[in-house]
Design goal:
The complex is a heterodimer. Chain A is of the alpha+beta class. In chain A, 35% of the residues lie in helices and 23% in strands. Chain A contains 14 helices and ten strands. Chain A has a seven-stranded antiparallel sheet with strand order 1-8-9-10-6-7-2. In chain A, helix 12 packs antiparallel against helix 14. Chain B is globular and about 65 Å long. A six-stranded antiparallel sheet of chain B has the order 4-3-6-1-2-5, with helices on one face. In chain B, helix 4 packs across helix 5. Chain B contains six helices and 16 strands. Chain B is of the alpha/beta class. Classes of the chains: A alpha+beta, B alpha/beta.
Chain lengths: 317, 319
């Protein structure tokens, strides 16, 4: 088994598709995780940030307090939970964060913007694999107020900056049925200080490209036409986002972190249970969701590929 | 986070003849951070009691400070804290939680406090001062001797604090006056006895404040059902289901084949909501609004009293 398979957060628990708020409470509360792809993914993030900073980082002035809170939270968490890779030293208001994996040191004074070269959230995000989003918990709703977003699945930070939670999610098919999105929003507003909830969200990406923003759709979207039964195992990747919602205790805002994992189907099908569950979920996917996730274009090829694998491995459909 | 842990009483100070401040700390654990307006839950022999944290959240040195007014009742938690507790004692706590957070989008803050209702504003004022935001405190008390933290407040916030003593009518008039002619972006926060809050709420309505900028405790802590009882449920007007004392309505319904969605099983996500048609319910969630509780219940934590009737949506092939 490869490291990618071992670490892969397989998202399906049932044999048919169901959209639900499948969140679980994390104990202890965590906002980020370090995988075996840490170095390559952090380097990829930094390249993207250096080349397309406006696309990958946006923040409203109101988010500054929460940004500082996130910076310290993430650095403290890394040094506490992964002490072999990270160290944080404090002397009064002065902090020194050492990233032993990258052999880097960040020194800063807490809440002194002149002590760092980029905004605090941008700095925190340069040391983790996650995309980091700050949702401000305002008197009139939840608003996306800052984000470092390098690996989006077909969305644009520039487009959603300052938007309200429900408005951001309007494109998801069926999301307003039974007041679903309202319930999710209320759930988020009820998350208690210092608590974190995790859910997995899945999609499919063609090639193992992590950075699929709306802005470069013309480059990667067309790859969907290239999928055949013969190349699906290599070309098609199950994409899983481990999403965490963390209530920042001091500002009372929400840190939303997204850790994206990709697994090519050739690796996925070597696990019988994963193969069967992935197959049954794609098979029972409502058409509008398949369209939304971009699967409709090659669903027939994908299903044929999976059915052949099921037959080869003598698994009942 | 939600779990209980113990803290040690480090310090006790008499603030007024009836109010004591307690400093709680730990030698072994790192205490969680908190925000302005947050409270701590104390687990006392007579039950749980919540008290606002009064220290500055940005200057928290592994200690929590609370101020408690002795209400004097025989079995009361406040009397216990005043008369039984000593420096060095260990008490069990949980939290902090925050039902009264400061919204940083406000352009200006108006704080209204009466008596011991001052406590959440102590952390708010020191927090906002550190951030350089503008606020005013309008503080009502019967006399200076019964005005907790009067000296500290008038020294520290001499330009922002307005203290109202004297007759009730006069105070009402002045407090109302303080709400007038405010700019858009002003947020109102209030804490005090019921009559005080009602008077201010009425005034904000009269003056057409948008209700979303008027803040009091957002929602009450959930009711804990200590001694669950069995109950009988009529589902969708046909099936009769019996819920035993040691199981939840959600568990029973799922065992009966109803495909009720669920997630947190703690009464906070709202996934397992069902429609309440008839009967009395002990609501134990922190999700539904008071209005919604009349026609809905969360099946994971809330329980019927005796017989109830509910409707559930069928979302699949299971039944």
């Amino acid at each position: 088994m490869s490291n990618s398979s071992k670490e892969f957060p397989f998202p399906f628990t049932k044999d048919s598709y169901a959209y639900s708020n499948n969140s679980i409470l994390l104990d202890p509360a965590r906002s980020v995780a370090v995988s075996s792809h840490y170095i390559e993914e952090v380097k990829l993030k930094r390249n993207l940030l250096n080349q397309n900073h406006e696309r990958c980082f946006r923040a409203l002035p109101l988010s500054l307090e929460a940004q500082w809170e996130v910076l310290l939270l993430v650095f403290k968490e890394l040094s506490t939970c992964e002490p072999q890779y990270f160290t944080l030293e404090q002397r009064g208001n002065a902090y020194q964060f050492t990233n032993h994996l990258l052999r880097e040191v960040e020194s800063f004074s807490f809440k002194d913007s002149s002590s760092i070269e980029v905004e605090p959230l941008d700095l925190a995000g340069r040391h983790v694999q996650e995309d980091l989003i700050i949702m401000g918990d305002r008197h009139d709703g939840l608003f996306l107020e800052a984000g470092q977003l390098c690996f989006p699945s077909n969305w644009s930070l520039t487009f959603v900056l300052g938007m309200e939670f429900k408005a951001i999610h309007t494109p998801v098919p069926g999301i307003t049925d039974n007041r679903f999105i309202e319930k999710v929003e209320r759930f988020i507003t009820r998350i208690r200080p210092n608590s974190a909830w995790e859910r997995k969200n899945w999609s499919v990406t063609i090639t193992n490209k992590l950075d699929t923003p709306l802005e470069t759709y013309s480059d990667w979207g067309k790859l969907r036409y290239n999928v055949t039964e013969a190349n699906a195992g290599e070309l098609v990747n199950l994409r899983v986002e481990v999403q965490r919602l963390y209530r920042l205790p001091v500002t009372n805002d929400i840190l939303f972190s997204i850790h994206t994992y990709l697994l090519p189907l050739n690796e996925l099908i070597s696990n019988d249970e994963w193969l069967k569950k992935f197959y049954t979920n794609v098979k029972t996917l409502p058409k509008e969701i398949a369209d939304y996730k971009g699967i409709s274009l090659y669903k027939r090829e994908l299903m044929t590929f999976l059915e052949r694998a099921l037959t080869q491995r003598k698994i009942e459909r | 986070m939600n779990d209980r842990y113990v803290v040690r009483v480090e310090k006790m100070e008499q603030v007024t003849p009836t109010i004591k401040a307690f400093t709680l700390s730990s030698n072994t654990a790192t205490l969680e951070q908190f925000g302005a307006g947050a409270h701590l839950t104390l687990h006392l022999p007579m039950g749980n009691r919540q008290y606002s944290l009064i220290n500055n959240p940005l200057d928290m040195k592994n200690e929590y400070k609370i101020a408690v007014k002795n209400l004097g009742s025989e079995q009361g938690g406040s009397r216990y804290l005043h008369e039984q507790l000593e420096v060095g004692d260990i008490i069990e706590v949980s939290g902090p939680d925050n039902y009264f957070p400061v919204h940083l989008e406000a352009q200006h803050y108006l704080f209204f406090a009466a008596g011991i209702g001052i406590t959440p504003f102590l952390s708010m004022m020191s927090y906002l001062s550190t951030l350089g935001k503008t606020f005013e405190l309008h503080y009502a008390a019967p006399h200076v001797e019964n005005c907790p933290f009067h000296e500290e407040i008038t020294n520290k916030y001499s330009k922002q604090a307005y203290v109202y003593l004297g007759s009730r009518e006069e105070k009402r008039k002045k407090l109302k006056e303080a709400l007038r002619n405010r700019k858009v972006g002003t947020h109102v926060y209030m804490c005090g006895p019921k009559s005080f809050m009602e008077m201010l709420n009425d005034s904000t309505k009269e003056l057409h404040f948008p209700q979303r900028v008027v803040h009091e405790e957002r929602f009450r802590p959930a009711l804990v059902i200590r001694d669950p009882k069995p109950f009988c449920v009529s589902v969708n007007g046909k099936d009769l289901v019996f819920v035993k004392e040691n199981e939840s309505l959600l568990e029973r319904l799922r065992n009966e084949g109803y495909s009720i969605p669920y997630a947190c099983r703690m009464g906070i996500c709202g996934s397992c909501e069902v429609t309440l048609c008839e009967g009395e319910v002990l609501h134990s969630d922190s999700f539904l609004t008071e209005q919604e509780k009349k026609s809905k219940m969360l099946s994971c934590v809330s329980r019927g009293v005796g017989d109830i009737a509910i409707d559930v949506e069928q979302d699949g092939s299971e039944k």
